[in-house]
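Archive transcription. Copying these from loose printouts into the bound notebook so they stop getting lost. Printout 1 of 2:
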Amino acid sequence: MALNVNVNSDFSMQEVSDVIRSALALDERLAKHKKARYYDLCKDFETKYKMSSDIFMQKFESGDLDDLDDYFDWYAAKKGLDHWNKKLNILSGISL
């Protein structure tokens, strides 16, 4: 897929490209950090409850689990992990 960038300024394409590369690199570092943090949270819950996060999500979303606060925290952590993993995959596939 191609992406067009329109720049309404007097900056050179090299300057614009450098800024975009820098922004993407920063976003990738943030995504890696967030993914690792949510991964650790999920692993802690998996160890505590002896269940994978994927199985937990199936049971949670089907209503098969109690309303423990931990379960809501785990749900949020898994959603966060999935979000940052997706974002990192997108960022990893971008080349300029």
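Printout 2 of 2:
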Amino acid sequence: MKMPMVILVLAAMAGILRAQEANYAFAVRPHLTREDLAASRFWTKSTIALAALDGAAKAADSYATRKNIAGGGEEYNPPARPFVHTAAVQVVATGALFGGETAAAYLWHKRHHDHMARAILIGGATMNGLGAAFSFKHRVANW
């Protein structure tokens, strides 16, 4: 069991060293250099708008969820239930999700997959927007 792990680690180290020696960004794509990765801008007007829309959708979803829980309701998204018992945990979890989505979009952009980077931000905004709409539609009676 240990031998395959050692082989995997050595292979990864060899690929990293090969990439560093040749000044390549990735050992598997020698035509893509570090300078190519630094050439384009991530924070364009469209990316800023998508990130703002994603943040607004997360804020709306968090607000609707907090109002439902305060009124005796529940979180309707099963994977999110452990993270909404208190407001502090919900804020930290939502911030971590937003930061993770933004970081993933940045990494996809740096590898010249701009459509995938935008899709991550659009997907986050869509899912949280739908979550806010569903929470509002199924809200408890007191709000």
